[in-house]
UniProtKB/TrEMBL annotation:
This is Anaphase-promoting complex subunit 4-like WD40 domain-containing protein. Residues 149-204 form the Anaphase-promoting complex subunit 4-like WD40 domain. InterPro entries: Apc4-like_WD40_dom (IPR024977), MABP1 (IPR055292), WD40/YVTN_repeat-like_dom_sf (IPR015943), WD40_repeat_dom_sf (IPR036322), WD40_rpt (IPR001680). It holds the Pfam family ANAPC4_WD40. It comes from Xenoophorus captivus.
């Protein structure tokens, strides 16, 4: 393999974790090669249904191994944040005892799991990639490329399921809005909605009588889309002076920070309230009676 990253040494075995999901076993007496253990799932695979990996499949690098000689279990951690425990009672017939796949980066919300990018590098821990590059012959240029890759890293930033349960809206770090059909997971909309990452998505409640989707971004804009008309643009609100961290619809005629008036077939939002705080506002929600909005702030207070 291209590199070895970790070792676990006992009286019976030396296990060496390597790149591309490879783990090799050696004899501690004479260092003779014994066998290669099975690899974990390939990157981008649906682990609930995958049977056989493709020939061109890529695997996460092994970053840590440890062996339990009493139970003869080998635990392996890979750089896509997955954990496998292999039963090596019979070394040449090792089988998976347990596995867990954790998130490859910080989690901003939870509604559904889907892959939106074919670049498998985005599933890996960038720190280990940088270390691998630093150990290569072209350390200088490779590390620079890895750092640039980290800066340009894509990924879903926020998720929201429509009240009907039919559509899944997602906004990524590049400002792209996607709409998926929940039943088939087919992508029915992909549009560059904002110039920077989308921080919040919100569908209007059914009791409003409207089917709207609001998208808020670090570019200081809110777009209001009509979900009933193929997510066509209703209005763009550009009155904010900084990143928009939360947007909510209320069920009453008046909204917390905008007022919606229905004129014929068109909709128009006008600002109703403008409240300024010295501290950063991180998140917001409207309580069930629709009379109050609670805001979580940087100074650890809820207002």
């Amino acid at each position: 393999t291209s590199q070895a990253t970790c070792l676990s040494v006992t009286e019976d075995f030396i296990f060496c974790g390597c790149s591309d999901g490879t783990v090799r076993a050696f004899s501690p007496v004479n260092l003779h090669f014994l066998c290669t253990l099975p690899r974990p799932h390939c990157l981008g695979a649906d682990i609930a249904s995958v049977v056989d990996a493709r020939k061109d499949s890529r695997y996460p690098d092994t970053v840590a191994v440890t062996f339990d000689p009493t139970n003869r279990w080998l635990s392996c951690v890979y750089n896509d944040h997955s954990l496998y425990v292999w039963d090596v009672q019979e070394l040449h017939r090792a089988g998976k005892l347990y596995s867990a796949l954790y998130h490859s980066s910080c989690v901003w919300g939870l509604e559904k799991v889907l892959y939106v990018d074919n670049n498998m590098t985005n599933l890996l821990d960038m720190d280990s990639i940088t270390v691998a590059c630093a150990n290569s012959e072209k350390a200088g240029s490779s590390v620079s490329e890895a750092q640039q890759m980290d800066q340009n890293r894509v990924g879903i930033r926020t998720l929201r399921v429509s009240p009907s349960g039919k559509h899944l809206a997602s906004g990524d770090r590049m400002g792209v809005l996607r709409i998926h059909d929940v039943e088939s997971m087919d992508e029915i909309l992909n549009v560059q909605a904002h110039d920077s990452e989308i921080l919040c998505l919100e569908f209007s409640k059914p009791e409003t009588g409207l089917q709207l989707l609001a998208t808020a971004s670090r570019d200081r804009l809110i777009h209001v889309l009509d979900a009933a008309r193929e997510y066509s643009l209703v209005q763009t609100l550009d009155e904010h002076s900084s990143s928009i961290t939360a947007v909510r619809f209320a069920a009453q005629q008046g909204y917390f920070n905008v007022f919606l008036s229905q004129m014929g077939e068109g909709l128009e939002f006008t600002r109703r309230h403008h409240v300024v705080r010295k501290t950063t506002l991180y998140d917001m929600d409207v309580e069930p009676t629709q009379k109050y909005a609670a805001v979580g702030c940087q100074d650890r207070k809820i207002r």
